[in-house]
Amino acid sequence: MSIPITDISEPDVSCSNCQACCCRLEVMIITDTGVPQKHIAVDEWGAETMLRLDDGWCSALDRDTMMCSIYEVRPWICREFEMGSYECREERTVTA
Ligand code: SF4
Ligand code: SF4
């Protein structure tokens, strides 16, 4: 009999039951992954971040699905942000 592998310490942490909490954080663009220009904000020093809308969410977030609409070209920081990590759980707590 095979037993499914689950994280019993954090059984409820999943992007599918999260309202994309981490997509309200500031996301710096430090490498060119192909993010469309319309989703990029440039500050007075020339630094690039993901554009955030008035409600704080990243402009690349699909509001119908609450999924990333540019997943294949999302910034490096978004790729490194790990589901279930300390930062993830912190953000879920803050936004809950
Ligand atoms: S990585 Fe964490 S905070 Fe981000 S959407 Fe997934 S569960 Fe939510
Ligand atoms: S680029 Fe995608 S994964 Fe990154 S913050 Fe925006 S919507 Fe979230």
Provide structural commentary.
The chain contains two helices and four strands. It has helices spanning 76-80, 86-95, and strands at 40-42, 48-50, 61-62, 67-68. Strands 1-2 form a two-stranded antiparallel ribbon. A two-stranded antiparallel ribbon has the order 3-4. A hairpin with a 5-residue loop joins strand 1 and strand 2 (48-50). Mean pLDDT is 88; it is low at 1-8. The structure holds iron/sulfur cluster (2 copies). One iron/sulfur cluster (SF4) binds at residues 13, 15, 18, 20-22, 81, 83, 88, 91-92.
Summarize this, please?
This protein is an alpha+beta fold. The chain has helices spanning 76-80, 86-95; strands spanning 40-42, 48-50, 61-62, 67-68. Strand 1 and strand 2 form a beta hairpin.
Low-pLDDT parts are 1-8
Please tell me the overall pLDDT.
Answer: 88
Oligomer: single chain
Proportion in β-strands: 5-15%
Describe the secondary-structure layout.
Elements: E1 40-42, E2 48-50, E3 61-62, E4 67-68, H1 76-80, H2 86-95
Bound molecules: iron/sulfur cluster (2 copies).
One iron/sulfur cluster (SF4) binds next to helix 2.
